[in-house]
């Protein structure tokens, strides 16, 4: 196989990897905040449910979760597996998994805020929702940005787990090409692409973090 053809296939795999990455971030970041609210709820039933959800998502491998979402409907309800369901399976698997991690990151940030800020906001006449949205949340986001950056970089590498669903992302393309060509060149190129992708994510997140650190 010509090098240009190999590179073209790897680029197509990279596009799929980027799609998994961005879709997961767009869905899991706000979902994680909702899960965080549930985890911190004063209702013991709601709190216990979300605590259990986070425990399961963090306590079982992402690869296993993807396979459950993919094969579960077939084995449980005999629903035929289609390409549409394959796409929905990885969206659910990645988003729900990372939402659990982001929820705990948010919770740590919220609980680190001094109680005095809530009391001061109450004296100034802010409602609970106004206090959270205008005072607490902006500070929490600034505090948790380093942790979110770490999770985002981890996500870049975790996208390779989509190969379990036969999705032709970067790793699966490299694996197929390496088996066909019987050499390590596809793996080497894939490793370089992953590295550059991680550097780019780290650079962008660092710029965002600096923009948010306007009091330094």
UniProtKB/TrEMBL annotation:
CDD domains: TM_PBP2 (cd06261)
PROSITE patterns: ABC_TM1 (PS50928)
Coiled-coil regions listed in the entry: none
Keyword list, A-Z: Amino-acid transport, Cell membrane, Membrane, Transmembrane, Transmembrane helix, Transport
Positions of transmembrane segments: 20-40, 52-76, 88-106, 185-205
A Pfam family that the UniProt record links to this protein: BPD_transp_1
Membrane topology reported for the UniProt record: Multi-pass membrane protein
Cellular location(s): Cell membrane
Residue ranges of every copy of the ABC transmembrane type-1 domain listed in the record: 14-205
PANTHER family from the UniProt entry: L-CYSTINE TRANSPORT SYSTEM PERMEASE PROTEIN TCYL, MEMBRANE COMPONENT OF AMINO ACID ABC TRANSPORTER
NCBIfam families linked to this entry: HEQRo_perm_3TM
Family the UniProt entry places it in: Belongs to the binding-protein-dependent transport system permease family.
Protein name, per record: Amino acid ABC transporter permease
Protein species of origin: Faecalicatena fissicatena
């Amino acid at each position: 196989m010509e090098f240009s053809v190999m590179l073209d296939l790897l680029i197509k795999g990279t596009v799929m990897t980027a799609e998994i990455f961005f879709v997961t971030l767009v869905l899991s970041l706000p979902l994680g905040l909702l899960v965080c609210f549930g985890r911190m709820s004063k209702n013991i039933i709601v709190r216990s449910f979300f605590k259990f959800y986070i425990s399961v998502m963090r306590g079982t491998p992402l690869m296993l979760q993807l396979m459950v979402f993919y094969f579960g409907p077939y084995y449980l309800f005999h629903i035929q597996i289609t390409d549409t369901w394959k796409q929905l399976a990885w969206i659910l698997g990645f988003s729900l998994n990372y939402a659990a991690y982001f929820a705990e990151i948010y919770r740590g940030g919220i609980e680190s805020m001094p109680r005095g800020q809530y009391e001061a906001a109450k004296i100034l006449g802010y409602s609970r929702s106004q206090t959270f949205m205008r005072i607490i949340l902006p500070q929490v986001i600034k505090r948790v940005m380093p942790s979110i950056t770490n999770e985002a970089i981890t996500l870049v590498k975790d996208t390779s787990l989509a190969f379990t669903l036969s999705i032709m992302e970067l790793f699966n393309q490299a694996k197929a090409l390496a088996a066909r060509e019987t050499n390590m060149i596809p793996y080497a190129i894939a490793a370089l692409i992953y590295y550059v992708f991680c550097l780019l994510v780290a650079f962008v997140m660092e710029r965002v973090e600096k923009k948010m650190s306007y009091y330094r």
